Amino acid sequence: MTAGAAAQRQPDDAELARRIAGRDERAFEAVMREHNRMLYRLARSILKDDAEAEDAVQEAYFSAYRNIAGFRGGAKLSTWLARIVINEAYGRLRKRKQAAVVVPLESARIGSDSRPEEGIMVEGTEERPDAAALRAELRGLLERRIDALPEPFRIVFVLRDVEEMSVEEAADCLDIPAATVRTRAFRARALLRESLSRDLDAATVDAFGFAGQRCDRIVANVLERVRQSNS
Q: Buried-most residue among 79, 89, 142, 161 (CB within 10 A)?
């Protein structure tokens, strides 16, 4: 291997863990930036709250940093981190229930946080305001319907369909059989299709709305032309 190729070689999980254990902040930052989105979505799928999911991921990272020496490489680093996040999120959920805090079904949207990378268009492209608003509305609808899924199905859906993990990777993260992942993913998609279909049916009635300003504008424009032709 040439010196240049060696310099470009990406460190494996075990090497990254050794560096972090040695207090290498750059290695730890690289790990966080690589896994931030997946871990946030995983925490969000359990907690259904943007701010608390972000706090859970931060607490999980700190715990991972303090215990990185315990990482033996038996599983992927991403799986090890995911399990820490899951434990942290469920711990927070238990505290909620003990405190008798009501968890709203429709919590804040994922897109309301401050992550700059989410939702940004590729440089050099522009999106019309109406198209951007429609896309945001559709995303909000989808997020609310995902939030409404039963918890076991919701978590699997996020890992399989949002994060696009393989069945085996999701099973490792959740420490459940692959067959269970497949069953829950199938059920989650069916429930989601059903709820979105109901929304679509309700919205179809009002599609291409005509009353209001559009109706008034057409009438006014035609009458103006009639008056001009009669003058």
A: 89
